[in-house]
Amino acid sequence: MDTDPLMYVTEVANRLCLTASSWRAYVADGTAPAPDDPDLDRPANRRRPRWRASTVDAWREQWRPRIRSQGAQAATASGEAGEPASPH
Questions:
Q1: Cβ atoms of 51 and 12 closer than 8 Å
Q2: Within the chain, where are the H helices?
Q3: What pLDDT digit, counting tens, does each position of 28-68 carry?
Q4: Which of 8, 14, 33, 72 lies 20 to 30 Å from 23 when distance is taken between CA atoms?
Q5: How far apart are the C-alpha atoms of 78 and 73, rounded to whole Å?
Q6: What is the CA radius of gyration of the chain?
Q7: What is the value of pTM for the model shown?
Q8: Region Disordered: what ranges (predicted)?
């Protein structure tokens, strides 16, 4: 049994609790790692790239969803996070 299996897009997405389209978007914009097996021997529209479980797990450790980080920045900027409410 392979202790570091190669996973297709849907398997990676399931492992990360993402949709497959979200994972593809992260890969396309360079946020996520390039595939360990890009499947370059097929035409571009037929490729099925795969990532090692260890690659995905390492990325997950440093990854922060964009929506959460933007929400946290907005809350901090508006005084909603970490500051007591002022009495009126």
A1: yes
A2: 9-16, 20-28, 53-62, 66-77
A3: 999 999 999 999 999 999 999 999 999 999 999 998 776 55
A4: 72
A5: 9
A6: 18
A7: 0.70
A8: 28-88
Question: If you ran DSSP here, which 8-state letter would residue 48 be given?
Answer: -
Quote helix, strand, coil % in the chain, to nearest 5: 50, 5, 45
In angstroms, the CA 83 to CA 81 distance is: 6
Token duo for residue 34: 């390039």
Confidence category of residue 2, pLDDT binned at 50, 70, 90 = confident
- Rounded Cα distance between 79 and 51, Å, is 41
Domain boundaries, the chain: 6-77
Running DSSP on this structure, what letter comes out for residue 66? Answer: H
Contact 53, 7 (CB under 8 A): yes
